[in-house]
Specification:
This protein is of the alpha+beta class and 405 residues long. It has 3 domains: 27-136, Sandwich (Tumour Suppressor Smad4); 137-230 and 363-405, no CATH class; 267-358, no CATH class. The chain contains 9 helices and 24 strands. The structure holds zinc ion.
């Protein structure tokens, strides 16, 4: 009788554990920074109580200090606790876990900025850089991303939509980074992927994440590349050229979004003096060599544009007789802080360059300002997501084919 009870109790416990494992979110590895190992760099790391440290060749060990200083100097890492001399770390990688008295106070601070999860420092032989990576629970990551990619004053429904979009984008990165590269991280913490600035305490954003827990967008059972930007400017993504929509048909939206038209950057205009304009192009390193033998700017014209309005090529002529071709994406990147999208026109008048454009961002996928307006008009969450990502559906992370994360 007692034995049967024990077996039943064991079975019950394993069922609970299995259920927890299914519900648990995976961890995501976020690249916080890349550092030149020949240059001096100090990382001041802090936890509430102590740290657990691990290197590839040592077992996890306890550091009885809530402060840890790591110094990078001449390709070598050195470390010390609260007191004592700096000691050489004889490994290419170190993992740092914070220990706290309560799980809610489990925060790791690096140079006074708080983060969820753990940190690791790792030398990357391919790039010859030292990488600083933050590993954390996917749901905590989405919660942190909401503050950086959304506005905390936006309505709750908008936060839920952004949570689904950002989670989907992250899961897509987690799956593709594993398949196509051997990078020790899944996602960058900036606009290259999506912005992540660490832990915060906006509890209403946590509610939006909890209410959409594990929900992602899928197309034909696969996780969607959920691209998003601030304002589409009315561009129709299906009319863009140079994008292989066969891999992501849900990004080829054919219906225009003009719901963002009241946003300040739906239409924008910037004026540069010739000198300002050329110096901005020159400051962008891929263009630097093109400008070797230039003198006075004569003309500037757009020589290739697609049906969506996206500029693909620009021609500049200079006195006495030289011509420079610049591809649209390089032109946009070089003027990125002023030119808000690749959808623009250019005028050259009285020694000034006047650029007028539409939208803010790459203009593909989810348009945040348009969605914000649709929430105001009372569109339900599902309908808004289906508008920006046609033929996708909302799925649970665990049932997705390629979400083996
Ligand atoms: Zn829009």
């Amino acid at each position: 009788m007692q034995l049967t009870y024990k077996i039943a109790a064991k079975l019950f416990l394993s069922l609970i554990l299995l259920n927890q494992a299914l519900q648990a979110s995976p961890n995501i590895k976020v690249l916080l920074g890349e550092f030149d190992p020949t240059k001096k760099q100090i990382f001041n790391i802090q936890s509430e109580k102590e740290f657990l440290l691990k290197t590839p060749k040592t077992k996890q060990f306890l550091l009885r200090s809530n402060k840890l200083q790591i110094l990078l100097k001449n390709n070598v890492l050195y470390g010390r606790g609260k007191k004592g001399p700096l000691k050489k770390i004889n490994y290419q990688e170190i993992e740092i876990k914070p220990i706290a008295t309560h799980k809610n106070s489990k925060t790791i601070l690096i140079n006074k900025k708080p983060y969820h999860g753990t940190l690791s420092l790792k030398f990357c032989p391919k790039t010859e850089k030292l990488l600083l990576i933050n590993t954390l629970n996917l749901e905590d990551y989405v919660y942190a991303v909401l503050l950086a990619e959304s506005y905390q004053t936006w309505p709750h429904e908008m936060q839920k939509i952004q949570a689904i979009v950002s989670r989907t984008y992250a899961v897509h990165q987690m799956t593709t980074s594993r398949r196509s590269s051997n990078k020790p991280y899944n996602i960058k913490c900036n606009n290259f992927h999506q912005r992540y600035t660490g832990k915060h305490n906006y509890h209403h954003l946590r509610r939006a994440v909890d209410e959409t827990k594990n929900l992602i967008l899928t197309h034909d059972g696969n996780v969607v590349l959920a691209m998003f930007d601030a304002c589409c400017g009315g561009s129709i993504p299906a009319n863009m050229t140079g994008i292989d929509f066969s891999k992501a048909p849900y990004l080829a939206r054919t219906t225009p979004c003009h719901f963002c038209k009241n946003y300040a950057l739906y239409n924008w205009k910037r004026t540069f003096s010739e000198k300002q304009f050329i110096s901005k192009l020159l400051a962008y390193s891929p263009l630097k060599n093109k400008f070797r033998s230039t003198r006075k700017l004569k003309t500037i014209s757009i020589t290739e544009r697609d049906k969506a309005g996206v500029v693909h090529n620009i021609e500049l002529t200079f006195a006495p007789a030289s011509t420079i071709e610049i591809c649209g994406s390089d032109f946009w990147r070089s003027l990125n802080s002023d030119v808000r999208s690749q959808n623009f026109s250019i005028k050259h008048e009285n020694n000034f360059i006047i650029i007028e454009g539409k939208g803010f961002g790459h203009q593909i996928g989810f348009c945040q300002r348009g969605a914000r307006e649709l929430v105001r008009r009372g569109w339900p969450l599902k309908k808004i997501l289906a508008f920006y990502y046609p033929e996708t559906k909302i799925s649970q992370l665990k049932v997705v084919k390629n979400a083996n994360v």
